[in-house]
Amino acid sequence: MSRVSVPCHVKGTVALQVGDVRTSQGRPGVLVIDVTFPSVAPFELQEIMFKNYYTAFLTIRVRQHTSTHTPAKWVTCLRDYCLMPDPHSEEGAQEYVSLFKHQMLCDMGKVLELRLILRQPSPLWLSFTVEELQIYKQGPKDLGIWFQVSPTLPASGQYAFALQSPSMTFPKWLSHPVPCEQPAPLLEGLPDPSRVSSEVQQMWALTEMIRASHTSTRIGRFDVDGCYDLNLLSYT
Amino acid sequence: MAAVEKRRLPVAQAANFTGSGRPGVSRAAATAESEEDFLRQVGVTEMLRAALLKVLEARPEEPIAFLAHYFENMDLRSPANGGAGEPPGQLLLQQQRLGRALWHLRLAHHSQRTAFNNNVGVAYECLSASGRKKKPGLDGRTYSELLKRICRDGEAPEEVVAPLLRKIQCRDHEAVPLAVFRAGMLTCFVLLEFVARAGALYRLLEDPGLAVADRHVGQAVLDTLEGALQASDDTTPARYLEAGSRLGPDSLALAMDRALVARRPSTPMTREEFLEKAAALFIAKVKPVG
């Protein structure tokens, strides 16, 4: 996969807390990190990578370029993504995390600015943040189709995949909605689709086989549609 | 031992003909010749090897019956025996030949391609070694007759296979090359399997109470199959992917659901009609002989 790192400016963390941070006894539970891209035109975000440091939940908001007239709006593209399954224990506390664009709630084109909202409800940890933050965009030449199976999806065989080659056009059937998204109020008495499908696929395979096996040998007929048939000729 | 000697004689003479210096060999030395040599000389080794290979290839359930049939057919296969004395009459001989060819053709399923091709070759040989007067070669009449026999034995309704026969059979006077013969046989067997599949599909679709399938559902399934066969893309892998996507369970379920939801007055579709329509999809892809 070709991806290009986007130079970004990570602003200092801002704690959201009632009262004065220095004097108050309680530690903040929410931190905000703004990420700007000062020297880059609006780009399509591909991947966000960072090393977690005791952050339990992550929300990301994105400001996207819409048009020259209307001001860009903030959109939530990731909501309460769980980084630590149990905020009170170590698991996941210092892991490297990659978030891809297909995991986001919205389209990640024309990104102007990102805002990471970090939450840690557990008072056990002195501080929390994310480190080594890196933002990637789509590489210029990626001709292959790259399927990414998201590890967060259920392992029921229905995987969402991201097609990472915007330069190519894909046929419509390839972007069928994922089966689990379709409403399935199937009627009573409908034949078992999977068995029907299996039979129909066999029939398709047999037909394809005959279509593919063709002989170049010809029997050497010269006539067109039997117009030289002996019976026919004798009448004329 | 004497009988053995007698039988060996012509072979020995033939061997002597090469003049490799055996005329002086004593009788005792000749009998001392190993059994193995004898078997090879009279061709039994080769014959048994071929028979064993056939058994291995076909893996019959009853090997003894299979071998009996095999040797019976082998006797008839050699052209020298074909017209010996001509007692059975031309018609009977023709029927025998067809029967033999069919037996060979059925030895291997068409998906075992090499074995099937071998058997088609043997069957072709069987059929083309006809009467002594004619030149060897397979004429269109025998070929068409064989096609009809296969279809008739294959339990497919006549109106279902008739369009195929029209497409691939040859005229009586035409000489049928092996390649055309092979393609025709393959197509015929594959169609029979296709029809059997379609029959199984119909059983899945039919209403358990009424024993007939709903016309709209049946048509929807066939339309889905037709759509997959007419996949837009020309490149093979993409076409296969597309067909796989169209013929997946969810896609078919949706099509059938739509057909049922429409709630048009339901008319039944008979099994024959379903098979005919399904076979038409298949036959459309068959290239006609020309």
From TrEMBL, chain A:
Q: Which InterPro entries does this one have? A: Nicolin-1 (IPR040235)
Gene Ontology CC entries for this record? nucleoplasm
Quote the protein name from its UniProt record: Nicolin-1 isoform X1
Q: Which organism is it from?
A: Tursiops truncatus (Atlantic bottle-nosed dolphin)
TrEMBL record, chain B:
> InterPro entries attached here?
DD_TPGS1, TPGS1, TPGS1_C
Tell me any Pfam family this protein matches.
TPGS1_C
Residues forming coiled coils:
none
Q: Which GO terms describe its molecular function?
A: microtubule binding; tubulin-glutamic acid ligase activity
Q: Which domain of life is it from?
A: Eukaryota
Might you name a Gene Ontology BP term for this protein? vesicle localization
Start and end of every Tubulin polyglutamylase complex subunit 1-like C-terminal domain? 94-287
Q: Name one GO cellular component term.
A: synapse
How is this protein named in the record?
Answer: Tubulin polyglutamylase complex subunit 1
Q: Which organism is it from?
A: Tursiops truncatus (Atlantic bottle-nosed dolphin)
